[in-house]
Amino acid sequence: MNAVSASTTPDPEGPSTDVPTSPVRWARYVAMGDSFTEGLWDPYPDAPDVQRGWADNLAALLSARRIAAGEAPLEYANLAIRGRKLRPIVAEQLDITVDARPDLVSLVGGGNDILRPAADVDAISAALEDAVVALRATGADVLMGTGFKAGGSLSWTNGRVGVFNANVWSIARRHGAHVLDLWGMRALGDLRLWSADRIHLTPEGHQRVANAALVALGLEPEDAAYDTPLDAAPPVAFRDSARANAAWMREHVGPWVKRRLTGTSSGDGRSAKWPTPQSWPRA
């Protein structure tokens, strides 16, 4: 079991073509999850309506290393759908994942649950553990993720996230899973690595997480500086900060609250972007 460590300044255009020599034993990878694993907001340059994200980047990095070692490309599927809570992720995606017979699965979720006022963190964690047990019974390696350490207006979630993270580490220890330590990534404390909605990463943020995932799996990162914090930002005038906060409330918090009140989700009517394993990267 390996935790995420240190950082990088990845190329925002995509994974590096300089492939380290770390061996990759996995041949088929399935990613389960919510918007974080779907890849919001990291659009493909040639298909801006399709999100890329850390899991697609991780699959590309693993595949490149397999090809460099003379192996067949990695096969990859991404079942993640934005807005999903942990138990719906398991209910909708677990059987499909098991049927695909992967040897590597990432299962990262729980953030949408934790944002709800009545969240039961231990119940969420129990559902996660049941899924990990089922996946490990197939022989697949499992990569889980901790929650992020939030700042500013979302810092109220940190107590819940801390309990959830402790449970994630305990589940990993009990069942021999890997942990992507998002809480411990220093670079992610910088708002410049977050999109305008402040709860999803920028393309550079997703690449940094892909490097962290390599480390969590016991492999060398593409860039040893993947968790190096950005240079200090210039000070922002109070007036500009207030305007930015007001715009965030109007454009992102308001619609989120409306969806909660109306019982709708940003993922309603959506399906997985890569529902079946395919040779990666796509032709």
Automatic annotation (TrEMBL):
CDD domains listed in its UniProt record: SGNH_hydrolase_like_1
InterPro entries recorded: GDSL_Rv0518-like, SGNH_hydro, SGNH_hydro_sf
Bias (Polar residues): 1-10
Residue stretches making up the SGNH hydrolase-type esterase domain: 31-208
Annotated region described as Disordered, given as residue ranges: 1-22, 259-283
PANTHER family to which the protein is assigned, alphabetical: GDSL-LIKE LIPASE/ACYLHYDROLASE, PUTATIVE (AFU_ORTHOLOGUE AFUA_2G00820)-RELATED, GDSL-LIKE LIPASE_ACYLHYDROLASE, PUTATIVE (AFU_ORTHOLOGUE AFUA_2G00820)-RELATED
Name of this chain's protein: Lysophospholipase L1
